[in-house]
Amino acid sequence: MIKAILVFNNHGKPRLSKFYQYFNEDMQQQIIKETFQLVSKRDDNVCNFLEGGSLIGGSDYKLIYRHYATLYFVFCVDSSESELGILDLIQVFVETLDKCFENVCELDLIFHVDKVHYILNELVMGGMVLETNMTEILTRIEDQNKLEKQESTLFLFSLNFEVPIAVFSLAVHALECFVELFHMVAGITAAPARAVSAVKNMNIPQQIKDMKLPDLPQAIKDLKF
């Protein structure tokens, strides 16, 4: 069974870590540091497996690794796993990454960590090896990429459909606000007009003419002191 899969660079910076047995975060960091110290000090011309560190199980577990350019790929496994089989699995993993990212490099593992984990899950799940045939793995990854593209296309289509509706709704709302404002302004401006019209209808000059004033001389005579 595979206990952990670690990928770190020549300076010990982890680029991928997958533990199939629970360790808290501090312990995981200590295991990565210890594993790097054990692996990095070995010469390139020695065998690619050794006993595991004390933190991850000691002699009951083995560290099987490959060194590619600036990256170490390390699998921590128990005695039930074949060293040569795990070395081949590491090679399949790296070649699959290389096919997916076109000449994979350290930056691909940093900026596409989700995709790297997905690829790894096609090979290993729960510490058990699922698939070693790279053709099958690439086929599944291609199917996943097609599905993601379809979902992306549907999302863009729905977005393009929703945007005109949103713009139309906004335009209708703006028009309603404009009509309401127009009615308010029309009501304010119509008030003086209605007042003027009412005054005109009163025909005040004619009413003044029609007024019958008393005869002033006669009125004076009629005054009683």
From TrEMBL:
Belongs to the adaptor complexes small subunit family. It is found in: Cytoplasmic vesicle membrane; Golgi apparatus. Keywords: Cytoplasmic vesicle, Golgi apparatus, Membrane, Protein transport, Transport. It is a peripheral membrane protein. CDD domains: AP3_sigma (cd14834). InterPro entries: AP_complex_ssu (IPR016635), AP_mu_sigma_su (IPR022775), APS3 (IPR027155), Clathrin_sm-chain_CS (IPR000804), Longin-like_dom_sf (IPR011012). Residues 1-147 form the AP complex mu/sigma subunit domain. GO terms for biological process: Golgi to vacuole transport; intracellular protein transport. This is AP-3 complex subunit sigma-1. The keyword Protein transport applies. PANTHER family: ADAPTOR COMPLEXES SMALL SUBUNIT FAMILY. Part of the AP-3 complex, an adaptor-related complex which is not clathrin-associated. The complex is associated with the Golgi region as well as more peripheral structures. It facilitates the budding of vesicles from the Golgi membrane and may be directly involved in trafficking to lysosomes. In concert with the BLOC-1 complex, AP-3 is required to target cargos into vesicles assembled at cell bodies for delivery into neurites and nerve terminals.
